[in-house]
Amino acid sequence: MLIGLCDRTERPFQNQNKGIFRPDKKAAYLQGLVDGLGIDDTTKEGKIIKAMSALLGEMAEVIESVDEDLSRAYDQINDLSDELEDLEADPVGTGPFHYVSRSPQENIVLEKFSDYWDTENQAYLDKVTFRIVKDSNAVVTNLKSGTLDMYARLSSTQTAQLAEDSDFTIYDGGMNLVQALYLNNAVEPLNNVKVRQALCYAANRQEVLDMIADGKGTIIGSSMFPAFGKYYVPELSERYNQDIEKAKELLKEAGYPDGFELTITVPNNYQQHIDTAQVLVEQLKAIGVTAKIQQVEWDSWLSDVYADRKFQSTVVGVDAAYLTGRALLERFTSTSSKNFINYSNEEYDKLYQQVKTSTDEEEQVELYKKMETLLCDDAANLYIEDMACEVALRSDFAGYRFYPLYVQDMTKIYKVK
Length: 417
Description:
Helix content: 25-40%
Strand content: 15-25%
Largest sheet: 6 strands, mixed
Number of helices: 12
Radius of gyration: 30 Å
Order of helices and strands: HHEEEHEHEEHHEHEHEHEHHHEEEE
Structural class: alpha+beta
Number of strands: 14
């Protein structure tokens, strides 16, 4: 991770408030006022001024102490900033590998850390290089030429090209993310639950899997994927089995008997999401919805779609940072800054508040399941799948493992030849 720091020609952190409010000066002013006007401190007014002066004097002592503490804190922050500049070029960690070098947009080189504290889980490999592959079309070529020994998240085409190659083993797992046609619940006509439900009934999720991944993947029905175990509600995946007539009826009830136009915004660096959008475009034609795909740069997607919420619909995958229901479900509370689809349901918000105050794990799990069910019933999004993840590993190596969260655990991989 790169850390942006201020120019060291000036101190980035300073106590800017020091001296703005000086109670000692106020106290001196009041005393001067008393002396200059000859106010008797035994009168009502004099007693008030005397008390204020004493209070300000006490405040001055406290603030002086705070100023000293703040100055020390700012000095420590600036010292830390100097150290962080060093960490950017030479990061230090406590894991089984240690940092060797990095070439921006090219590679990161790690070597085995022989003094790793966990002696039972030492790395097998002496050296690992993570290389950035800018052209996805070159992945298979790089693997077969020996430039790469491993590549995660292969496309179905890439997997097919390597399937008969004895030099590689293909590992199958899940990407552990929620791929969906995410719908902006605040814009017309998607602010109508019947319209959103119609879109869900129009989609054939298995056909999506068949078209983009040779049928691989796990169909899901809400914002949760199977690796979350106890939080996952598998039956929700059958809530919207394709039913074109029902979809048309819902559109008619919503006031759109002839359908409507829909823009699907997709980041152009994720081919699988683009492919998914193309399949959905064809499927939605059956209910009169004319969808068009708008491809955008990833930075534009982050700023316009995710941050500013200026979109109708978008195909992406949302993953989790940790293994609790909160990781995937908190974002859809009405006040969450991550609620990019503008979902709003008072019952959902109340359930989440109950989760936060509950200390019983079983109760929390049930509350999370109710939240998932609400997202499904409200057709908050057109949920599709937890996408298949296929990893190519040169047959000289073994030990690759999948985890509930997306990681590449190089400590488990070992050389067999």
